[in-house]
Amino acid sequence: MTRSNRVVKAARRPEVRLPELVAASIGELEPDGDYDGLEFHEADFAGQDGAGARFMDCSLTGCALDETRLHHARVLDSVLTGIRGVGTDLAEASLRDVELVDARLGGVQLHGAVLERVLVRGGKIDYPNLRKARLKDVVFQGCVLVEPDFGGARLERVEFVDCVLKGADLTAATLVDVDLRRAAVLDITRGVGRLSGAVISHTQLLDLAAVLAAEIGVRVAPED
């Protein structure tokens, strides 16, 4: 585990500059659909199939994504604000230069996904499945993540700023230049031994002491 004063490489945040957008008039998403320079406002995509679709220079505001299938979708240079949904399927999707603001998601499937230069700001995401995902230059800021599963994932230049991390699973994860020092709550239930490559504060180290001891098989008992 690295010392808290180690210099870590900062994440590169997305710089999204949307062009003048056209209001989207589509009825339903289409598999492998191509959406460029569109504004989606409070669209209901629940249960629709947009697998393999590409969203480029788009704005999605207040859209419903319950059980929406976006497997292998690509979201590029876009801003998603106030999206909501349960069981959204973004498995093996690619998100690059994306801002996700005030999202309310539950059970979102992001396993095998690639996130690069992504800012997740505000909102709450329950039980996100990020197993074997690749995160590079990702910032979680002021959000709540409940039981995120990073099993087998690779996190490089990832920052947690003023966010709540509850019940995180880091089993078999690889961390490189991951900054956890400014997390408001840091709760790791599995895989705490994978924190090599991350930087935490002294206070966080004390809070994780019991979990660390259990991870390496150390029994802690009162002195005689």
Automatic annotation (TrEMBL):
SUPFAM superfamilies: Pentapeptide repeat-like. The lineage of its organism: Bacteria, Bacillati, Actinomycetota, Actinomycetes, Kitasatosporales. It comes from the Bacteria. PANTHER family: BTB_POZ DOMAIN-CONTAINING PROTEIN KCTD9. InterPro entries: 5peptide_repeat, Pentapeptide-BTB/POZ_domain. This is Pentapeptide repeat-containing protein. It comes from Streptomyces lannensis.
